[in-house]
Amino acid sequence: xxxxxxxxxxxxxxxxxxxxxxxxxxxxxxxxxxxxxxxxxxxxxxxxxxxxxxxxxxxxxxxxxxxxxxxxxxxxxxxxxxxxxxxxxxxxxxxxxxxxxxxxxxxxxxxxxxxxxxxxxxxxxxxxxxxxxxxxxxxxxxxxxxxxxxxxxxxxxxxxxxxxxxxxxxxxxxxxxx
Length: 178
Hints:
Radius of gyration: 20 Å
Order of helices and strands: HHHHHHH
Shape: elongated
Helix content: over 70%
Structural class: mainly alpha
């Protein structure tokens, strides 16, 4: 095996282990967001979990860099792959939620929100040329697969800034003089 192949395999193995707690926090944050309509305190908890996950990833990367001196670019790649894998775990949790727990609740809550005058005015400002009734029909006709695909795309896009935020402050380890 070449040195690069060993490094790549090590990267995916390490990222997989690092992704587990991050993905669990993101999944819990998602569940908090889904139930935040009835319990607003859960929204705060979900946001806190999202922010704490960035700190946890930062600490994991710092510990890894202390044990395995590497370049910052490698640490950022490790962070990015970790976020991608955590996103996949979150996608699985989101799919399970919509398949087993939601039972149409999310769509009905969004339909109710779309009927409020404040929400309609905001949508009209954001999309002045679109018909709000058509947007509502499209939204109501979305399947579980469509919703999860949208969320998976969101998780994929979110992986880049989160991995960058976690990797940026990771500093090179200073060697102790003996």
